[in-house]
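Journal club side-thread
Mid-discussion, someone asked how the predicted structure for our own chain would compare to the paper's figures. Pasting it here so we can look after the session.
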Amino acid sequence: MSREVKAAPGAKKGTMGRIIKTLFEFYPVKLPLVLFGIIFSAVVSSIPSVFMQNIIAVVEESWQSGDWDSVAGRVAAFVGILLVLYILSLVSAFTYTQMMAGLTQGFLKKLRVKMFNGMQNLPIKYFDTHNHGDIMSYYTNDIDTLRQLVSQSMPNLLISSITIITVFSIMIYFSVWLTIIVLLGVACIIMVAKKVGGNSAKYFIRQQTSIGKAEGFIEEMMNGQKVVQVFCHEEESKKDFDRINDELFENSQKANKYANMLMPILGNISNVMYVVVALAGGVLLLADVTNVSISGMAMGISIVVPFLNMTKQFCGNINQVSNQVNAIVMALAGAERIFELIDQKPEEDEGYVTLVNVREENGELVECKERTGIWAWKHPHKADGTITYERLMGDVRMFDVDFGYEPDKTVLHDVTLYAEPGQKVAFVGATGAGKTTITNLINRFYDISDGKIRYDGININKIRKFDLRRSLGVVLQDTNLFTGTVMDNIRYGRLDATDEDCIAAAELAGAHNFITRLPQGYNTPLTENGASLSQGQRQLLAIARAAVLDPPVMILDEATSSIDTRTEAIVQRGMDALMKGRTVFVIAHRLSTVRNSDVIMVLEQGRIIERGTHDMLIEEKGKYYQLYTGAFELE
């Protein structure tokens, strides 16, 4: 089901600072070198006006005195100094741009790694409550906005800012009067940029959110394409997509409309400013107005002419800053979403009891590094500092357990049960009765609201989640196969398993025969969740994956739901061998698969209403009897 993505009102304060801080964390040496190169190039590009003023002043002086011989040497000296600075600036610009390319891509790579690593530690609840397509958008669109920011917008913004400060300082040095006129024009530029650019920024933020919605919808439709076509829902899907796409179009159109208006308006204001400064300079010269400046120089051609160039440069860089606003706002909106993912609280794990390999020596369990086939819980006791080892048996007990996915909505009420080592416990009941929820609590995908769950006598809250889940084999109703060979997918259950272990697991699960008939056998590549296989074949691989783990506890959540009756008989024989000596929790709608269970739990609305063996429950003629005989439909 698609989930609505709330539109972000804007990036939080401090997001830009956090981007810069992250850059420094990733590149503590390289980034300062890049910044030095940018600042050096910006300063050098701002000082030609000073040399122009000096050259014009020398020419004026020589023209008045008639001493033309000294002009060439002094002018050549100024030009030579300027040429050396330009060469150094060129070398600096070339160096920092090359470094910037590697820094940008490296920053995005490290940020993606940080996002993905953090995502692996998030609780299952996060993925149950967030649109998967929108999560994918973090790694594509949002990351791409940061590429634009780091590679272009931030360098350009820094260059323009340094240039503005440098040019403004030179302008004040030469003439306060002309500087005031320029500042009045800049005030007009800022007003226009704030009005037009503000509207543009608002719609660029909405555009990013709309892109996430569109990608989430497309991902949902791709996954459910068979259902769409089976129920002839194509036209409705088109209408839904058109609505989402129209929203994206409207936001993008308005964002780019305001963005495209901004630069022509600012450019024309700059041109008007150039003319106004030229006229004002001429009036001041003709009126012989006393110049107010830090330099103390009188108003003259040597000031007015360079000032025109500085006006163009000053206004141009103001425009450049304004032009970067849209890209910066988009990047900040994307960065805010990225940091929101990074800041998600990881799955809490206060467990300290771990699972270790042990061997028996003189009747005692001794921890060892090599795989012995015997596992034990390593239990450090904080009270006295001792460590005890409890052999992993698979004894699972629940006492008065209450649970709700939301704090105010309890879905399990006062659930008490036990499964001794080697027992097969089955859960039956209508959809939503709480069967899968119980198994989710055993492996701590969710934590209980009240009560206790003990595993081999240990409160599971004390067991580290990684070790707890390593001791459990799970076969889910929805099968997920990953890109790789058939062998890779079976070995997913235990990465150190040999090929012989994987083949033995496949034989146990009843998958060996169909695998050997594949084009490349166990080396057949699988893509797109094993799309080339039937649903039943994918389910058999999932069972083989659990079998290779060889766990003491198995959770089978509708493990044979996608297998035909004939194949189910084959799989059941393998499952019986797999379950021998293990504690097994079975969730099944086919009641024929749970007849041989040691105990059957009948759930209704989150409560266990009946429990016992198949024969006992049939004799009681309660809900199970009704379900089994067809007097009451399971669903």
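Post-session note: Residues 27-342 form a domain with the ABC transporter transmembrane region fold fold (CATH 1.20.1560.10).
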